[in-house]
Amino acid sequence: MKVDVLLGLQWGDEGKGKVVDVLTPGYDLITRFQGGPNAGHTLEFEGKKFVLRSIPSGIFQGDKINVIGNGVVLDPALFKAEVDALEISGHPLTERLKISKKAHLILPTHRLLDAAYESAKGAGKIGTTGKGIGPTYTDKVSRNGVRVGDILYNFEEKYNAAISRHKEILKQYDFEYDLASLEKDWFEGIECIKRFDLIDSEHYVNDAIKSGKKVLAEGAQGTMLDIDFGSYPFVTSSNTICAGACTGLGVAPGNIGEVYGIFKAYCTRVGSGPFPTELFDETGDEMRNKGFEYGSVTGRPRRCGWIDLVALKYAVMINGVTQLIMMKSDVMDTFETINACVAYKINGVETEQFPFDLNDGAEPVYVELEGWKTDMTKIQSEDEFNEEFNAYLNFLEEELEVPIKIVSVGPDREQTIIRYTE
Ligand code: GDP
Ligand code: IMO
Ligand code: MG
Fold first, then answer.
1. In angstroms, what is the span from residue 248 Cα to ligand 1's centroid?
2. pTM of the model
């Protein structure tokens, strides 16, 4: 079988965790291939709510195997906190979670460097999640990283060499810190990681594919935060796109199957950076309040705006999306009208092509559609969609040239509508 990939098409927080959980019964293996605890993936079922950061969202459905792939960066302290919380709530993980030896470790000093770099940027800061993501990937690429597999071999030497190097950099930034307190939790986290099966995940995943198992790869962040194709430099430090699943798991491009592209019926973004369709008025406030658009982990209010089809078309192209998933249809169900951005005006010239630099100022060109003005949260099948809602779906499918196969009408696992396949 092939590896199906589910990934965000906007600026993250599209609802990836919820849908991975819904799709998990159809798979044997759920994998994460990039990012780290900058992610916050929310799942709701049976009146309970969980937020996952490094652990794949397949962990709650039966005894599926979950794999943290080589492309992920792992913070031992935060990983332990996540494991402890899940185990306390009755979800033992040891038998069901495996970690790639090639995944890179976020060292305590990576978090400090993240903070130092951000404060040095002043007003131009990225607005990172402060989890050390950028510095860890920087060390990976500059061949200075420490990997999960290193825990088993010559660990102290590698750890100390990296820490000394980081201390020198922090000195240049005049950055004050208390490393000892961070190290305590960090080393407890290392002991926690040792409890798990540390594997050569590229072999494990390819063996699974060969033996006919079904694999789902769960993206983190979103295409607009991709290091190559996102709104650079206001992006994360990994490839969040479909190709990231190949490098982040060791899967050949020919072994990628379905590519599920997930988006909200509107759009949000956290942190700094351009966001052409952002709303600063009551409509934006209404999206934030009704959609509860606050960071899953940090609680930061998310910036809200209309759906952006220029960016979405670009994301569909880059990822080779084969099926679309639309989330949060309930959030706009009182709106009289809904805007969709179909082009940008840049320096007075209209374009449908995503530009080199979104920071140059892209003014959205909208078309107005009728709102669906009906409570979506109780809807159980697509037969119950009204005319206006169907018109919105048809409009998006025509623009994006990919079918919308799943529609989400609320945060709960049950509030998910799988559309008929022809
Ligand atoms: P992820 O990072 O892509 O997994 O998304 P997050 O979990 O960060 O953010 C999505 C938020 O929307 C979470 O609070 C979900 O519980 C919630 N959510 C997901 N789908 C829906 C939906 O269809 N309607 C509403 N109202 N909330 C949803
Ligand atoms: P999930 O997986 C939304 C954003 C940060 C910041 C930029 C860089 O839950 O969708 P980083 O800490 O990665 O160096 O921050 O990326 N960001 C996210 N925004 N959802 C996420 O993950 C994000 N992960 C990072 O806000 O703008
Ligand atoms: Mg999130």
1. 24
2. 0.97
